[in-house]
Amino acid sequence: xxxDRLFDAVEKCGPVCVGLDTSPKLLPQVLAAEPAIxxxxxxxxxxxxxxxxxxxxxxxxxxxxxxxxxxxxLSCYRDTIRYARGKGTIVIGDIKRGDIASTGEMYAxxxxxxxxxxxxxxxxxxxxxxxxxxxxxxxxxxxxGVFILIRTSNISAEDFxxxxxxxxxxxxxxxxxxxxxxxxxxxxxxxxxIGGVVGATGSQELAMIRRSFPGLxxxxxxxxxxxAGGQEVSKAFIHGNGALINASRSILGAxxxxxxxxxxxxxxxxEATLRMKKDIRQWTR
Amino acid sequence: xxxDRLFDAVEKCGPVCVGLDTSPKLLPQVLAAEPAIxxxxxxxxxxxxxxxxxxxxxxxxxxxxxxxxxxxxLSCYRDTIRYARGKGTIVIGDIKRGDIASTGEMYAxxxxxxxxxxxxxxxxxxxxxxxxxxxxxxxxxxxxGVFILIRTSNISAEDFxxxxxxxxxxxxxxxxxxxxxxxxxxxxxxxxxIGGVVGATGSQELAMIRRSFPGLxxxxxxxxxxxAGGQEVSKAFIHGNGALINASRSILGAxxxxxxxxxxxxxxxxEATLRMKKDIRQWTR
Lengths: 285, 285
Prior knowledge:
The structure is a homodimer of 285-residue chains. Chain A is an alpha/beta fold and 285 residues long. Helices cover 44% and strands 16% of the residues of chain A. An 8-stranded parallel beta barrel of chain A has the order 1-2-3-4-5-8-9-10, surrounded by 6 helices. A two-stranded antiparallel ribbon of chain A has the order 6-7. In chain A, helix 3 packs parallel to helix 5 and helix 3 crosses helix 12. The interface between A and B is large, with 59 and 59 residues.
């Protein structure tokens, strides 16, 4: 079951998830100067994966960064996830889709088979359970899972997610439904194939969700460039597992302002990953 | 300003928006038998556009149906929107994206420039105003607009959208914020470049939103195959304008069970469009 594989990966390598949100701005000069940006990004991603794959539990690939480069960018998305999965690691497609009926089915097909197949995807719950239903037939096979947005890490999350709805903020209603949807899809460590995305910057909210819903595996963005550190994210864990901590820019861009960035950007990414693991470990052990 | 162009198109051609949710199942046999499905879909879309472009105000292209066919499918999405825009008609990219910060910027760039450029896109508001902010620089230029999900047409919309939050259902909070975000982007008929998506199947909700927020141009899915008819959608209009009524399967699939479907699928689409216009007109005049 893929959620058990993820649990084992966190046991073995720790909870760091590298976010391949590779914008052209993050490329070292030598790659930024190449004529075709999508192939430069693919080369960059491959070297980042090679330099970190033994240190991390998985990769999250943010599709928006590839979509912004059109059809060629999406070829690079396809090739990046294939490369990472070819290394035997787990890949999360950060797609945040959420649509109903036949449209939802098309998104499930798009991201759980064919060119863009990943192991997990992120989903947006606004349309209700219909956003999830089309993905369930894939979850039945036990080798696919989803992370549903619960409480995001941005300031305007409060616009709707924090609204008080019948004595609880909206995000707690969402967390409760996500937890209910997931109850028939639990792996051997109690975690469900249906997990949640919770931002690290709202650490009280994170603690409340963690306490209330121990069966949810949590995907936590917001570490590093977005401001949260090891202490904030430590609230996501149960005995050092049950959560992934994603970092993107702080790892991919670790080579910035280094004289030998062109040659050694992957070494700097590796060093940043090791620092991040250490930072998290000191708050969880 | 694009919202004025849309208003004028509805004045001239009526509120029908053809949804190019072209799944392989909707192709007539002769096209379904072609070896490359994406190119068969493109051929189908071109003929549907040619057969209806003088009758309708715009097209909505549902990206999920193309994404499900991988990189080749997205080439077909690109070529479909280019073909329609090349005819001088307005195109809505039904993408329902919604993400924050640099990721949101990437989605804005992806769908308001380059391969996938359309005139309007649909957005999901769950992450709050950050879902919209990255699109505003494009709206400042006045030739782009957005439709934000307010109340969807599916049954499980009630899971979250109908929750009572401080005396009002969540979707009314969303509608109010959408209306506020749009107040600086109004065209000469009072409608904003920031509109809303409201399902036709919840016709009380539709009436409530229409009454409370007269400056919102509304995009209404759910006509035809999803169950709503001319009477239900009539509540969306102010003097016959201010709303688009989308139909997909009832137009694209009008050739089903016809002996001459292979040759005349576009004629059947045209007839279905004319019937739909008549049905809506009888309830709005």
